[in-house]
TrEMBL record:
It comes from Marinomonas polaris DSM 16579. The keyword Lyase does not apply. One of its GO terms (cellular component) is plasma membrane. This is Carbohydrate ABC transporter membrane protein 1, CUT1 family. It is a multi-pass membrane protein. The chain crosses the membrane at residues 25-48, 84-106, 118-138, 167-192, 213-238, 275-296.
Amino acid sequence: MEETMVTSAKVSKPRRTKRVQISSLLASAPMAIVAIGVFVVCVGYSVVLSFTKSRLFPNFNWVGLDQYERLWGTSRWIVSVENLFLYGVLFIALCLVSGFFMAVFLDQKVRFESGFRTLFLYPYAMSLVVTGLVWQWMMEPSLGLQNVVQRMGWESFEFAPLVDPQYAIYGVLIAAVWQSSGLVMALMLAGLRGIDGEIWKAARVDGIPTWRTYLFIVLPMMRPVMITSVVLLAVGVVRVYDLIVAQTGGGPGMSTEMPAKFVIDHITARGNVGLGMAAATMMLLPVLLVIGPWIYREYVRPTKH
């Protein structure tokens, strides 16, 4: 009797497991269909349109690489790529540095840690449009920080980068770093909290200064967190649009023009879908170059035991 019950339990367990697997597949099917339909199909369709002479409405008048030749012969596109490179390098570097220092500060078990954590994370909860409008006001010469400080007696103080084509990109950078540093702080803090306390004790026993411990021991151990932060920030760099439109509109002149704005303007306002899709395809390449190796490393490459 007992042997029969054991055998029955062994048979029923695989059946139950199989039913759970089927239910999981059925539950995830709608999301998979939407992901394939929206992302894969739409991206493929966009790439196809970049080889056509589509204007206001898509068509299939093939022109080969003409749209790409025209794209790289357009000064506005060249300027937007240069702006994106400068903005991206400084944005990622400053966010990593500021986020790490904020995480180190919170990791000292300071009083009101939850309050500081909320304060640091709050900008990330705001939309980029709101962030752009807030910093546009703060950098307005007649209303913002420059006016306030000058009224306090420092009449020589100047802080109006958005009106100067040479420094406008740095004004956008300030707003972007303020908005995104909190995300890096949260990731870095989680990484710091995962460091074994024995490492700190051993470093103190060996007389290693705190800054050397962070630089040569802690940071290498947080490599996965660093990679995740860079990937998230890099994707945000490539698709930056809302902040530019809200804060500068791409000006003064073309000093803050970005590829994403170039794409949207040519697809909507200028009615040149073919050129816009060619620009969008070129924007897709750096995303694949950043995300592709990360996905391969994390999910495809076999783990060494």
